[in-house]
Amino acid sequence: MTDPIFNLPRELIDTAARVIDENRVAGRTVALAESCTGGLVAACLTAVSGSSDVFTEGFVSYSNDAKVRMLGVSSEIIETFGAVSLAGAWAMALGALKNSDADIAVAVTGIAGPTGGSDQKPVGTVVFARAIRGQNPDNIYAERMHFDLDDRGAIRRQATLFALELLSPSKDAECAASPSP
């Protein structure tokens, strides 16, 4: 089953609805910084009635220039590590918090393909970061994943699902126990 307006997969909508409810109960607001998902995470959240109680805003920063301009990602981070890196996702999540009133921000950046991959960062490489307001920046959770899928849309869907899950308050303890290296 899909969302009747945008044909969003039911799994994404159901996950978004659960995440909205969990954050509402926790009294917490969320923001996003999206690159390879191009606003798909935000689309899933806003497909849920009442999401404005929780979702404050989303930044779609697809180009490196947009990451610098919209989120304040250092051009040095992009030049040194690349936009698709733990440091890049970390800076995007911090930028989303800095430029919003949200309590938590999740960032997603990656290579959805079918072009753009390299030996070091093949197609399907997606990096996530999760930052909570007031958290020590050294303890921000970030993770690099590889979705071994043949289809750009499938990679974006899996990245969206993972990003939605990272917004869940149930991930707080797990993410705090394993911040990025």
UniProtKB/TrEMBL annotation:
Signal peptide: none annotated. Residues 16-168 form the CinA C-terminal domain. InterPro entries: CinA-like_C, CinA_C. It comes from the Bacteria. Pfam families: CinA. This is CinA family protein. The lineage of its organism: Bacteria, Pseudomonadati, Pseudomonadota, Alphaproteobacteria, Sphingomonadales.
